[in-house]
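re: ur msg from earlier - yeah i can do the guanosine-5'-diphosphate complex, just paste it... oh wait u already did. ok heres what im feeding in:
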Amino acid sequence: MSASFTSVTSPGRVVEDRSLPNLAVPVLDDAMSGRVHDAAISRQAANGATVGPSTTRAHSMVSLIIPTKNEAPNIAWVLESIPDCVDEVIIVDGRSTDATIVTALSCRPDVRVIMQENIGKGEALRTGFRAAGGDIIVMIDADGSMAPSEIPHYLHFLENGYDFVKGSRFIGGGGSRDISPTRRLGNKGLVHLVNGLYDAGLTDLCYGFCAFHRRYLDYLGVSTQGFEVEAKMVVSALKSGLRIAEVPSLEMPRRFGHSNLHTFRDGIRVLRTVLREHDSGLSGHAVQQVRSMVHRPSARSSAVPSPAGRP
Ligand SMILES: Nc1nc2c(ncn2[C@@H]2O[C@H](COP(=O)(O)OP(=O)(O)O)[C@@H](O)[C@H]2O)c(=O)[nH]1
Ligand SMILES: [Mg+2]
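and the outut:
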């Protein structure tokens, strides 16, 4: 694969993995701009402003995938909030029994609607990803808990050297007005577990606002059925050594209706996914270490500092 194995994540910014001197040079500039820009994003997000994409965007086509299950009261707000940088909108509907599809089409006639064959958010996203025509794929929920106006932040990082960008509610500029204390605790424990198992520095895990380059779709292992899909994608990205960035995201309360997620049942599915993935392969850090040994010139090896916190 063509992905560079040079990244680790840390709260609110991307940290260069200095164990890879050969590959570090082109990425370093991106990482530096990422830090600077991230601070700007945090400030602007706090002010409710949108970072305009026009100055940094290349001409990648952007597809937005929205899974829906009985979101008639919410979908219009989501569709009307989509910024111009999105070229294609795909709704994957999970057998809604309300007017979700009619509402969506009357609000935005150019939206593509795909009827999901099976059930589950994971299956819906997989269907949408396969149908997407864009070079960049963004996923967002349909319940109004995520603001489409944040999408340019994600694009900025994708267009400046990163492969997979995920929202975080738990870094500066982010937040959640939706998450229950139980889910917050569970998410925190799972983040801790993933960071330990995969040597990562993530601040959030079970959050469905992500974006990535379509060329890495096969590496994201989108094979799970339900709400564990986000954790599966993040862990797969770590294992593949993709360059990951976290951007601050503000999760608002679902506008109307109730969550389809069952905290304990789905939390256990996430836990099992995280553990199963660890048993079945190398962590991203392990892959990076092997690559660093292959690429590192022997004369320089003693002068190369170890990444912070690693032996
Ligand atoms: N297509 C499809 N979408 C689903 C399914 N389950 C949930 N969703 C959608 O996935 C998103 C997140 O679901 P939600 O119930 O809000 O879960 P929560 O945000 O984790 O509490 C929403 O846009 C839902 O409409 C499903 O089985 N099929
Ligand atoms: Mg929700």
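cool cool. The domain at 60-282 is CATH 3.90.550.10 (Spore Coat Polysaccharide Biosynthesis Protein SpsA; Chain A). ping me if u need the other ligands too
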